[in-house]
Amino acid sequence: MLAFQYFIKRIGVSIIVFFGVSVVIFCLARLIPGDPARIALGPFATKEMVEQLRETLHLNESIFIQYKIFIVNLFHGDLGISTYTKRPVLVDLINYFPATFELVLMSGTLMLLIGMPLGILSGTFKNTIIDHISRIISLLGVVTPSFLWAIILMLLFAYLFPIFPVSERMDETLDPPKLITGLLLIDSLIEGSFKVFWDSFVHLILPGLAIAMPAIGNVSRLTRTNLSDIYDKQYIEFARSYAFSNFKIATKYALKPASIPTVTIIGLDFAFMLGNAFLVETVFVWPGMAKYGVEVILAKDLNGIVATALVFTSFFLIINMLVDFVVLYLNPRIVLKD
Amino acid sequence: MNIFRSKYFYKFSQNPLSVIGLIIVSLVVFMAVFAPIITPFPEHVGPFTDFANKSKPPSLKYIFGTDKIGRDIFTRVIYGYRISLTLGIVVLSIAAPIGVTMGLCAGYIGKKTEIILMRITDIFLAIPALVLALAIIGLLDRPNLFYTMIAVSMAWWPWYTRLIYNITRSIRAEGYVAAAEIMGASKLHIMFKEILPNCLPSLLTKITLDLGFVILVGSSLSFLGLGAQAPTPDLGTMVAKGASLLPDAWWFSLFPGFAILIVVLGFNLVGDGLKDMFDVDV
Fold this sequence. Notes:
- The structure holds 2 protein chains of 2 kinds.
- Chain A is 77% helix and 0% strand.
- By secondary structure, chain A is mostly helical.
- Chain A has 2 domains: 1-76, no CATH class; 89-330, Orthogonal Bundle (MetI-like fold), CATH 1.10.3720.
- Chain B has helices at residues 7-13, 16-33, 35-38, 73-109, 111-125, 129-139, 145-171, 175-182, 187-223, 235-243, 250-278.
- Classes of the chains: A mainly alpha, B mainly alpha.
- The interface between A and B is large, with 53 and 44 residues.
């Protein structure tokens, strides 16, 4: 198979899965017992109000027509009105999504920047004190709930040693940059205000780290295992017999093959991190999509819940697709074989 | 066969980490089962108030301190383990059988069954687990423990389908499966009596690891206020209640938080030990 064919096939699969997901989420939203209109309005609403909301949500049509309306509207960018914020859901998404996007990208960066070196150290200095320490960090990363990381990091680095800020995306006293992409890091750079850039960067570190910790653990554990397998290979022994330095062997010969399995599961790590965003945004009062998601869930806002689930799933699907393309670049032989 | 003298147990016991994990898990289960006997203030579990002793930091009498209305946090943490363990066991007894049956059918029967079942599984896997569980709870009526169990099970079964499907595919061409086919065994017999026993080591390992992770996800949901409701002593809820009072009343959320960490760590260590013992990859 050619690389181009692979691209097309992979994008096609993602689109099909997206439709499948939309069916699943739509069915969940409509088939779950109880009247969504009644649940959204609460027990004190009058019959007429419920009937009116049923009419606006098209709940009186058959399920197939409802799905058709849902999909057609979806492609027109119309996700309905949120019964919680009383605004179109799309407007809410545009407001809240960039904050979460920025946060999760920060976490992804931290995952690679900390997880990979930790795994490499561990695998290179196997069964030494460095290895043990790094394995303990990784294990704790995996088994500690993200909200506990958020609390611990907050207590340590915001209260005990006040190095980092406690909440929100940037300092209140600074003027927010003009809304262009919604990503503070980029908007502030476009405006040329380095102070805002630095401030929002500092605000990203603690929540980003709290979200990334489980993924850091995963990446480092997997890198360690793969690296130690590679170190048993003959070509590494050959390089050693040529008296190449440990550093050169690790970075030049062992790292690329060892990183392939790690990269393959990065998509999965992103799934974890997207879930963790819900927990960490709550602790750090981060004005993002996940915090919005929790609010619409508690408010029983049907359109809001469906949109949140779809946005997170699409984000995950796109990340998975990009990861597969990176794997293709790293190892074309295996991917294109069949 | 005495399990403690088998070569498997020997291999397991040679790894100190696995043994530590086993001790942690046994201790947690023991404490949860005998909670009314070992906790100092069993009456603090319900809607109890003692305003004379509210918000006391950890001391000899209250080793984890007391909460906003004077209840002993240690007692509530131990009772919280009862909820967590029940959640883990119930979720996996729903998710694992569904996933295993689907995986066996998809892997052994093949053809259209395989395509349909695996596509459905892929679609469910495409939604991040916590997001799916959140959406389901959000769409159900009022959050409670039962709904949490249903929601987490719905998000968890696809992993078992994947696991069993992969194993089934790799062993369906083995001699003993062919032999059973020639002898005219039914499909059900082959799937559950010939193939399933060979999946057991992987299945057992995955269930052990997942017990920890289900507890973690369950506590995450209750942290968001979508699990068991007050006055039930749920670990995630306790952390959430305390989080708004940081940094002053740190013991409100740190001790229940560490309690979650410990039990997840225990199951994880045992699971890793089983992984090495059976030499399987899950």
